[in-house]
Design a protein that fits this description.
The protein is α+β, with helices and mostly antiparallel strands. The protein has a single domain, classed as Transcriptional coactivator/pterin dehydratase (Gyrase A, domain 2, 2-Layer Sandwich), CATH 3.30.1360. The protein has 3 helices and 5 strands, in the order αββαββαβ. Strands 1, 2, 3, 4 and 5 form a 5-stranded antiparallel sheet that branches. The longest helix is centred in the middle third of the chain and has 18 residues. It starts with 10 loop residues before the first helix and ends with a strand.
């Protein structure tokens, strides 16, 4: 049984509902570009996204260059964007942009790292 898909007209409201700043609809895909501070961080981000996708059993399409990762989501089996895509986008966003609490025990990287 496939998931119900959202019509294009409903996507912006669903993006806002899920707090997905930086995500947008283009060509039938839920998309987001992340910018990194270089190749090692790009590879770490790709692997983190890959881990989340595999754990969720819902796989993103990725485009990767030296300091950028583009994420594309849609539910292939349903033929469009479903709740699965919004939930996975939310988890990718949480992990990719997570930073330690200021003043906390984890000091955090001094590098630019991943930016939305």
């Amino acid at each position: 049984m496939s998931e119900p898909i959202y019509p294009d007209a409903d996507i912006p409201a669903k993006i806002a509902e899920h707090g997905l700043t930086g995500w947008y609809l283009e060509d039938g895909w839920l998309r987001r570009k992340f910018t990194t501070d270089g190749w090692p961080t790009t590879l770490m981000l790709v692997n983190a996204i890959g881990y989340l996708c595999e754990a969720a059993w819902h796989h993103a399409d990725l485009a990767v260059t030296w300091g950028k990762v583009w994420v594309k989501l849609k539910t292939h089996s349903a033929g469009g964007i479903t709740d699965k895509d919004f939930l996975l986008a939310r988890k990718i966003e949480e992990v990719a942009l997570w930073r330690p609490e200021k003043g906390g025990a984890l000091e955090g990287t001094p590098n630019k790292f991943v930016r939305g």
